[in-house]
Amino acid sequence: MTHTAAEQLIDSGNAYTPDVDIFVNNDEAVFAIDLPGVGKGDVAIEITENDTLVIKAKNTHAEPENPLLRQYGIGNYYRAFQISDEFDKNQVNAKLDNGMLEVRIPKREEMKPRKIAITA
To answer: Which domains does the chain have, with CATH numbers?
Structure first.
């Protein structure tokens, strides 16, 4: 098994907390996480034994010399979320596109709303 650069982050103390939007609908939870300067191979996502979704990312963007104005810090990212039993933690999928990480966790089938047919 290979390790990505992000897995070398040991704790959240040396990382920024990225912005995130979380959407929940009848089928899934969607986490949209802003990770500017992060490439696909520099993200590690896991769900721990205590049902915590952990996202670690290493920013490999080189900071330009002598910036005129700096409004955000360049560094590594760490974010963690507790995931309820309502969701199927074995079916997590993720994609990274232009610095936006999207993590999708579907609801367990028995937790999804269902229509009840009226027979009489």
So the answer is: 5-111 (2.60.40.790)
